[in-house]
Amino acid sequence: MQKILFVCLGNICRSPLAEGIMLHLKSKHNLQLEIDSAGTANYHVGEAPDRRTIANAKKKGVDLSSLRARQFSAIDFENFDKIYAMDKNNFKNILALAKKESHKNKVSLFLSGEPSYEDEVPDPYYGTESDFENVFWLVYEKCEQLAGIKEL
Description:
Blueprint: E1 2-8, H1 14-29, E2 33-39, H2 51-58, H3 76-79, E3 82-85, H4 88-97, H5 101-104, E4 107-109, H6 129-147
Helix pairs in contact: 1-6, 2-6
C-alpha cells in the first residue's frame, strides 16, 4: 500500500485539503493508499483545518471536519513513500530535514510539471472565497491525476 503525505506551512488550508480529497477518492474508488498531511510550522498543531477550507470542501462533498493539524517530522521520511510539498518554500524546509538521499528522493512539489502556478499551490489563507474555490479545483484535479482517475 502506498503511503502519501501532503505538506504545506500550517496544515490548515492546502495540505489537509489534499488529504481530504484523497481520502474521498480512496473511499469512492477503493484505492489502496494511506494518506496524511502535515505542516512545516507548528502554528496550528491540533487544530481543525481553516473554516473556509472546510466549508468550501463540504459544498463539493469532501469532509475535512475530522482532520487535525500536525507538524512535519523527520520520522515522516521513514513512514511515507511519497511526500508532496505544496510550494517551493515548504519543499526546501522538508529537504533541510532529510538525512539520506533516499529521503530526499521521496519529496517533490505537488504540482511538479504542471504549467500553471509555477509548480506551487497558491496559499488561499489571506485570500477571498474565490481563492479557496480555485485552490480546491486545482488540488482536486491533481489528486485525481495522482490516483489515476478522472472523476468530475
